[in-house]
Amino acid sequence: MESLQAERLTGVQGAIGTMEYVLNITLQYISERKAFDPEINKFQVLRHQIADMATEFEAYKSFTHQTSYRMAH
Fold it and tell me: What ranges do the domains of the chain cover?
């Protein structure tokens, strides 16, 4: 059963890497894309959505690190 847990944890770490890549691509895209003249990263609603995305990402990352540590010790 422990190997199954390690396998799941490995899968989650891959997903977290993908999430980080997507977040970085999103930040790059909204700083380049323009709508109604300014870049869309100036719009408050998008800033809130990106902040929520980043917060969730950090929470998942922290949870995975804590779980990895507990499995190792």
Answer: 2-72
pLDDT category at 1 given cuts 50, 70, 90 is: low
CA dist., res. 68 & res. 57, Å (int) = 16
Domain 2-72: CATH architecture, name and number where available: Up-down Bundle (1.20)
SS3 content of the chain, % helix, strand, coil (to 5): 85, 5, 10
47: Cβ contacts below 8 Å, ≥ 6 apart: 41
Give the chain's mean pLDDT. 90
Q: pTM of the full predicted structure? A: 0.79
DSSP per-residue string spanning 21-38 = HHHHHHHHHHHH-BSSSS
